[in-house]
Amino acid sequence: MNAVLQAQGLGKKYGRRWALRECTLDIPAGRVVGLVGPNGAGKTTLLKLASGQLEPTSGGITVLDGRPAATPAQLARVGFVAQDTPVYAGLTVSDHLRLGARLNSRWDAAMAGERIARLGLIPAHRAGKLSGGQRAQLALTLGLAKRPELLILDEPVASLDPLARREFLQGLMEATVEHEFSVVLSSHLVSDLERVCDFLVVLVGSRVQVAGEVDTLLATHHRLTGPRREPVRLAADQHVVSESHTDRQSTFVIRADAPIHDSAWTVTQLSLEDLVLAYMDKHEVRR
């Protein structure tokens, strides 16, 4: 298996509104994938399609070489942690572990118990009495103890404070190293993705804007600053992602595989956040 997720012309429509449109995507196995975009971009829809919670309106999607949630065996291979890290407020930590064991054929009770102990969670405490960070860690434990081949996390740390976010992401990275599974992590917090992800998907306005290895994307995107110039005067292999102009100066973010040799330009590298914002700007211009 070379790909953990493949989509071809994938779309989902609610009434007259497309939540996801013409999504073609190929995500290799063994990666920690950051799915980033503004609120309403279609991130949750894509993840629910990948986990089998929704059926496509158009196109198709394959996860782990099969149709999402097509069989109990296929369902067992994918873990899902939804927004706001949902747990049952009236159940204790131990109740959650027992429920996980009953519902998941691949359940790793030893791992779940060891992780709960290491986190300092009291088994008899009800989830509703835990802090936001503790609930997030409990939800992550339930997802990990399922022993999935793919773990999908939909904005799991958006409501947490910076320390709780860091602890959650640290625990996730330790688990990926130890158990070697693939991860798709949705977030609009690029700083979090920058710490943990090696593959990036930017989703804006219900469409995939760019996808690829983080190192490759950063190496092939550049900011050009120089005398005012129209984009048609750029080299043919320099694809404009976003642009801004003053009376005398132009600034472009471009994608190009070859080095930039035009001495009129000051060339600077982008951060991951710069790259994401450039693709969002591109979408705003086209709207």
TrEMBL record:
ABC transporter domain: residues covered = 5-230
PROSITE patterns xrefs: ABC_TRANSPORTER_2 (PS50893)
Q: Which GO terms describe its molecular function?
A: ATP binding; ATP hydrolysis activity
- In Swiss-Prot or TrEMBL terms, this protein is called ABC-2 type transport system ATP-binding protein
Pfam name, any one: ABC_tran
SUPFAM superfamilies annotated for this entry? P-loop containing nucleoside triphosphate hydrolases (SSF52540)
UniProt keywords, alphabetically = ATP-binding, Nucleotide-binding, Transport
SMART domains assigned: AAA (SM00382)
Q: What residue stretch is flagged as signal peptide?
A: none
The species is Nonomuraea endophytica
Q: Does the keyword ATP-binding apply?
A: yes
